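Researcher: Good morning. I'm working through a list of sequences from a screen, and I'd like to move beyond sequence-only analysis. For each chain I'm collecting a predicted structure so we can compare shapes side by side. This is the next one on the list. No need for commentary yet; just the structure.
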Amino acid sequence: MGRFLVQMSAWLILYASSCVHQETAWIETTQEDFADGQLDDGGNLYASWKGDIQVVNSWDLNDDGYLDIVFSNYGSDSTYNIHSDIYWGSKDGFHLQNRTELLTSACIAYGLADLNNDGFLDIIFGSWLNKDREREIDAQNKVWFFDASSLIYWGSDDGFKEDRVTEIPTYGATGISVADLNNDGYLDIIVASAYYRDESQKWDGGAVTIYWGNKEGYRQEKTSRLALFGGMLAFPADLNRDGFLDLIATNLDVESRSVIYYGSPDGFSDENTESLETSLVRSVAVADLNADSFLDIVFANGADVAGYKTNSAIYWGSDGAYSERRRTLLPTMFCMQPAVADLNGDGYLDIVFANCYDGERYDIDSYIYYGSEEGYTVDHRETIPTCGAHSVAVADYDANGELDLVFSNRYDPEGKTVDYFSMLYYQREGTLVLSDIQFPTHDGHHNMNRDLGNIYDREYRDAYTSSVFDAKVDVRWERVEWDADIQEGCSLQVFIRTADRDQEFGSWVEARHGHVLDEPLVSRYCQYRVVFHYDGKGRPRLNEIRVYYTETSGTKG
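Model: Good morning. Structure tokens for this chain:
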């Protein structure tokens, strides 16, 4: 709700007499101040426990102004006990020698966020299998086989080190997401598990486990579990626009149903859900594909009972529930991950599908379905050569103003080895060109499941809207000041609007830091809006905002 700052300033009024006006500031500077506002619906902004609003998602791990690439490696032909890799971006691009190896165990997913709010990005690697087990699967002891700790590599000013790692107990971790689900100022880690065992060692069929962030870190005793057979990913987004993040939980099973867990003031429950028809879904993408202000869900369907050449699905959002009656099916081949971006800059969002296998070979094409006024069709599709592609990421890696694609590949063309390489396609004047660098990966996964940019349209900006402030009487709103941490390539825009007693708000008016508002505003109620502009590298942060006003006398002028 904010607090007040009162100042006394004498104003000489050249009418009949002079009078003293009181200048007051509505100040917001704590987590509690910011927490009652409205964040954009994708969880990319949060009000942290330090008393600021900050951007969560960034792919520049060392804050040098260049995007980096992380490949999580599942394992080689002989062992799961293998490193994952960070390839560091630079002004000269990527080089095989410019990388950092981090020990992981059968890792097929990771997440990036500043978990402890120290200004450095951290990496959460999800462990699918126990690193102390052999490569062969022991079907009789599968509970212990999936009993593996996932790893948090803590970032610092000297990078990532294997002696700065925290283990969190997980079971068959297949998907990692990060968001402040309960709006308490701490980022939570959401782990999807295709297989799970409970505290009594009883075998179970999968789960979504939420590790609740708090001042003591991430601990087993501060978790919540949602049952989900074959869980592969739990993606956060406010689908119904009620101010609470929901979780889209995908299902590994063929011709099964994925589940939406709807958030509420009481958290999540197995009862407050909606299920959707899907088939072996590894990942999803969420965006407003048709620009109707509702979030749509893209499910990457891997296979069905007929085989690997199946249809992935777009479930179209509306003011009601999602439904099989409102979906579009698009042909894909054992698709592992979708990504959404406006690749060709025509104002329509495009969908990239990472295709893995056609039932015979792995050296198959992945697909780009280009958006248009007519929607998405096979006639408006481009093919991109890949080889057992397991994930795809979209970003401007060479900073030329065009979006590029990174595909992580799992296998060689015939599926004989997982010790292969992954691909980077640069976009050059609208054409995707395979780069010279081949990234060595081992059953490679990229699997940063969140695209860069706003969840609705992928523009590089997110917004926060404050709660409504009541000055109790009509006042003149004078100016706005704020304190913020802004990196190169980032900026903030601040707007305010006011309302009379009936709270019918006027239009947003942009405020310049410390300047008197260009348009005089006299009203009782006020609200501000902050737009965070970023470039996928920097993470702008708002620390405090002050909205100054003075009491008025007489009628409004």
